[in-house]
Design goal:
By secondary structure, the protein is α+β, with helices and mostly antiparallel strands. Helix content is 17%, strand content 36%. The protein has one domain (3-121): Beta Barrel (Thrombin, subunit H), CATH 2.40.10. The protein is elongated. This is Putative phage head-tail adaptor.
């Protein structure tokens, strides 16, 4: 890895740390049930981690109020990988951020340093 890539990765990690917030992640191998307030019924399958949840930038010339991106149900999550915690995030896991429950749709690992995840608001019909 050359110097420019390492510098760019350091900048990305700095941005992820800046926008990180507490996010609760629920295990995928057990059915998570939520009550009317969106709280989990089972507490043994959740873990709180630091993750940045951001709205993706749309390639559009319209301002945000016109293209409806603020109404979008898609988000991007960024998680800095830690070798010490032994926690693994995978697709179809659910996470809760600011009272909204998301499902992880796609994950890509970047340079072994952080994960970029596509998130959709969890639809109860699925």
């Amino acid at each position: 890895m050359d110097r420019k890539v390492r510098v760019a990765i350091r900048k990305v990690l700095k941005v992820i740390r800046k926008f990180s917030d507490d996010v609760t992640i629920y295990s995928e191998n057990s059915e998570v049930e939520f009550d009317d307030l969106g709280n989990p019924v089972q507490n043994k399958i959740e873990k709180t981690v630091k993750m940045a949840v951001l709205t993706p930038k749309h390639n559009s010339s319209f301002p945000q109020s016109m293209d409806g991106s603020f109404l979008s149900n898609k988000k991007e999550g960024y998680y800095i990988l830690n070798d010490t915690d032994g926690f693994k995030i995978s697709e179809n896991m659910k996470l809760k951020h600011n009272g909204v429950i998301y499902r992880i749709v796609n994950i890509e690992e970047n340079y072994g340093e952080f994960l970029r995840m596509e998130l959709n608001i969890d639809d109860k019909r699925n």
